Amino acid sequence: MINYLYREQNWKSQLNDLITDPQELLDILSLSPDVLLSGAILASQQFKLRVPRSFVDKMEKNDPFDPLLLQVLPHHLELEEHAGFITDPLGEEAATQLPGVLHKYESRFLLTLTGACAIHCRYCFRRHFPYQENLPKNKDWLEIKTYIESQPYINEVILSGGDPLTLSNQKINTWLERIASIPQIKFLRIHSRVPIVIPERLDQELLNTLACSRLKVILVIHSNHANEIDERTQYYLKQLHQHNITLLNQTVLLKGVNDSVKVLQNLSYRLFECNVMPYYLHVLDKVKGAQHFDLSQDHVTTLYNELLALLPGYLVPKLVREIAGEKNKTPIVTQFNPTR
Ligand code: SF4
């Protein structure tokens, strides 16, 4: 059943009504506020709790280990120091060329237009990113354009964040027109978790803007578990597909959330039902505060080999890690066989 309450609710009102209080979240889920609450309050002082109510509706009540809850509930383990877990694990400060322009790979670069997100994922590798110093203003566009034109191999712009789909349609349209005005740019990629957590954001105006662009638009959604994709989400993903938007998904492998072959298998099938192709399965970026989601290399390799055996090749995401300074994501297992 599609939840019509949220379908009728404007996406902006959902964005303005996020749950930010750990006590409220635990109350809604009928969880007793023992040790969970004190840890959550402390950890949320460093990286705030933010979660849409409709996403919480997808969680099981009375289950402190619900895989969706574990992704958003601040935890006291985030406050521990662990060797190798740092604030900028991907070396992004060094890759920043101009405010908002992160150029790590030859043919494409990231344009960060906002630091805001509809949800705060506890494993986020940008949880310490200094957005305020790195957001481009309208007056910066000419400098960005000059930078792109000085790099003839760039043919793709990736809107990243923060979450670019938290921006207004007007702002998205303005930036799309600017980007499309540069002939060498052929592709526009948008990375967003909003289609999963507030699918109503995919309103008709946005769909028209994306569909009418001269650029080939690719939307990479970020889903980590099939429970995140209910019928309401499926409805909006199908709208995107009908508007000729290429849909891909990337997943982060997270201890306690999706470190089981069954969960990963279900996710791939669920995505395919919604016309979304599994793209990347990322191992955790070693960001400070997320060490409790980390998995051993052996566990990752075993899981992935099991997944290869269970799924047809076209539904197996590429297992990768990102290494600071590398010119591409680094594949972890190479026996991926797309002809299976
Ligand atoms: S939506 Fe993306 S950028 Fe925002 S907190 Fe989650 S992982 Fe980080």
Strand segment count: 10
CATH architecture of the largest domain: Alpha-Beta Barrel
> Can you tell me the number of structural domains?
2
Average residue pLDDT: 93
Binding site for [4Fe-4S] cluster: 117, 121, 124
Family: Belongs to the radical SAM superfamily. KamA family.
Protein name: L-lysine 2,3-aminomutase
Catalytic activity: L-lysine = D-beta-lysine
What does this structure look like?
There is one protein chain. The chain is of the alpha/beta class. It is 34% helix and 15% strand. It folds into two domains: 4-79, no CATH class; 92-331, Alpha-Beta Barrel (TIM Barrel). It has a ten-stranded mixed beta sheet with strand order 1-2-3-4-5-6-7-8-9-10. Helix 9 runs parallel beside helix 11 and helix 13 (261-273) crosses helix 14. Residues 336-340 have low confidence and may be disordered. Bound molecules: iron/sulfur cluster (SF4). Iron/sulfur cluster (SF4) binds at residues 117, 119-121, 124, 126, 161-163, 193. Residues 117, 119-121, 124, 126, 161-163, 193 line the site of iron/sulfur cluster. Residues 103-318 form the Radical SAM core domain. Pfam families: Radical_SAM. [4Fe-4S] cluster binds at residues 117, 121, 124. Belongs to the radical SAM superfamily. KamA family.
